[in-house]
Amino acid sequence: KDVVMAPDRNLWIDELGMIYKVHRSFSWILLLTTLGFSYRFIGYFKRLETHERAENKVFITLAMAIPLGVFSQTLVGVGLQWLHMPGLLQVLHLIGVALLLSVLFIYIGMVHLILCAFGIYRMTVRPTVDDKKPYLVLPRTSLVFLKMFKKNKGD
What we know:
The chain is about 75% helix and about 0% strand. The protein has helices spanning about 10-15, 20-45, 50-55, 55-80, 85-125, 140-150. The relative contact order is 0.07.
């Protein structure tokens, strides 16, 4: 009897308010940042030798998939805006973001595993110091810090 009807799809964007504007703004920031990183990666990729490219094939593939995913999701988001929220693009947007997050998680996880393996390898290969001294913290700003508290000649 008292059935609440959902608004038409073309009115959904008007109902979202500020959340939609923030989402849209951050998506453009993400796209521009991804384009910057992609430009750096392409420069790095051009400097690699052929055997280095073969050794890093998984990382290169993932590093190329991430910008393509971000760019495609931006296009789908623009399509959602301009075509008044068609159902097919909603599904593509949700599935695409899930795949993109999965690829990012795999990429970051692989990098961390390699860093852990390298750290463990480095600990086993590197000789220990015979003359052990207590650990002394010296940050890079220590010289500036000392100049700040340097006593005057008159003191």
